[in-house]
Amino acid sequence: MSLLKADALTAGYGGLLVVRSVSFEVGAAEVVALIGANGAGKTTTLKSIVKLISIHSGQIWFQDERIDGLPPHEIGRKGLILVPEGRKLFGSMTVNENLEFGVYTQKAKAKRAANLDFVFQHFPRLKERKKQRAGSLSGGEQEMLAIGRGILAAPKMLLLDEPSLGLAPLVVKDLFSTLEQIAGLGEMAVLLSEQNVLKALSVSKRGYIMELGQIVHSGESAGLLKDAEVRKAYLGY
Q: What does pTM read for this prediction?
């Protein structure tokens, strides 16, 4: 049963259509990768789901309710949370203060203590730096903080937009290892938009490949990793 479903989604900026007739679904507690090169339409897809950009046509369903007509704050209250590319943190505020910005619904307030423990358990460096200004953290720590803030919102599903962007290989390895642990708990669904195809398919159950604003291939992640065309186009071998 689908938690999130997009049906023939077409979206863009003004008169420029970036995503055209895209359809996909994510099940409850499932991790799904949305992969492709820079400019393929992944970020536009995620932004359109939470109505940060206009949808020209198509439908989006979340928990069997159509949400493409709702404003962003209502979509967030239903448990669909975007962790944006570039983190969008408050650099002059502390780690703790940034995390608290995720706690804005009654459900999030009720689960605040448990979710904070969850974040500090899986991202222990944030606990060590909880009184440190967010702007002074490393890139990897800032990404952990952005994900942690999303978790404090008590989501049913996280949309992660390019979490590895700009990070060193060792930091990416640690980040995806933690994401894999979180995903393995089965407590929330994740739609992961990523240029790092190998890492994204390694932590996900299924994957959709985007090119020029359209889904061109999809399947089980393990199968996509073995697909000769996918390996040649995205992994270089």
A: 0.92
